[in-house]
């Protein structure tokens, strides 16, 4: 079946640094990708919708200048957490829509810990 | 707004036990309902779905019925196996699944031999 590779699976960084998370569709083209995050004991919350070749659409309350999303190709979207702070520590997960059949596939997630 | 309330875990059961994970929702319009499963180290996978009231989704021995009158979509399995150990997410969308999803908190299920 279709696979979405998300990397890294976990990352620890110092406060003030930036962290990039990659989401790749390995065997299909994805015109649309979604980024979610989950804080402990809370729901997976949609952060933004990423469309190839255009600017991402952010959900209300998500800072676009802090969470930079780039979807420069049909197989890759990146989320960069800029100037990370401890409150950004969370589980981030991406999903991708297969352009040929509209099916949705998820990555395995990235656990970010900011010290 | 839309929301999904899911039974809190973790849930631990013995092999061959009966499983129920409760899920209720609030939504504007007529949502589609989903259960996703995440096995250790893997991405979320669609387990089953239902797109209209009274539909029953089923897969791998799991079932869930879309109950509009109780706004529920409880997940059930008659006899669980160790391999069912995973995190289960209830979700809804106002489309058919490739639009924005609203998730519950997830329920971690552990099956012991």
Task: Characterize the structure shown.
- Chain A is mainly β and 115 residues long.
- Chain A is built from no helices and eleven strands.
- Chain A has strands spanning 4-7, 10-13, 19-25, 30-38, 44-51, 57-58, 67-73, 76-81, 90-98, 104-106, 110-114.
- In chain A, a hairpin with a 2-residue loop joins β7 and β8 (76-81).
- The model of chain A has no long low-confidence stretch (mean pLDDT 92).
- Chain B has 113 residues and is an all-beta fold.
- Helix content of chain B is 0%, strand content 49%.
- Chain B is built from no helices and twelve strands.
- Chain B has strands spanning 3-6, 11-14, 19-21, 23-26, 32-38, 45-50, 56-59, 62-65, 75-77, 86-93, 102-103, 107-112.
- In chain B, a hairpin with a 2-residue loop joins β7 and β8 (62-65).
- The model of chain B has no long low-confidence stretch (mean pLDDT 93).
- Chain A binds chain B through residues 3-4, 6, 9, 32, 34, 36, 38, 41-46, 49, 93, 95, 97, 102-109, and chain B through 4, 8, 36, 38, 41-46, 89, 96-98, 100-106.
């Amino acid at each position: 079946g279709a696979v979405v590779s998300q990397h890294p699976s976990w990352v620890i960084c110092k406060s003030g640094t930036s962290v990039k998370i990659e989401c790749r569709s390995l065997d299909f083209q994805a015109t649309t990708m979604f980024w979610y995050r989950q804080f402990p004991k809370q729901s997976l919350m949609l952060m933004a919708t990423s469309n190839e070749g255009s600017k991402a659409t952010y959900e209300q309350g998500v800072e676009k200048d802090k969470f930079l999303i780039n979807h420069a190709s049909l197989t890759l979207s990146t989320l960069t957490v800029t100037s990370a702070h401890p409150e950004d520590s969370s589980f981030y997960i991406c999903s991708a829509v297969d352009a040929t059949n509209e099916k949705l596939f998820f990555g395995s997630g990235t656990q970010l810990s900011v010290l | 707004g839309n929301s999904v309330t899911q039974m809190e875990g973790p849930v631990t059961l013995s092999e061959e036990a009966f499983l129920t994970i409760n899920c209720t929702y609030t939504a504007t319009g007529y949502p589609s309902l989903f259960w996703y499963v995440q096995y250790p180290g893997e991405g979320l996978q669609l387990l089953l779905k239902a797109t209209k009231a009274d539909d029953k989704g089923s897969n791998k021995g799991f079932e869930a019925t879309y109950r509009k009158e109780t706004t529920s979509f409880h997940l059930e399995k008659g006899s669980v196996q160790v391999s069912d150990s995973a995190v289960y997410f209830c979700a809804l969308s106002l489309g058919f699944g490739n639009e924005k999803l609203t998730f519950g908190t997830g329920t971690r299920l552990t099956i012991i031999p």
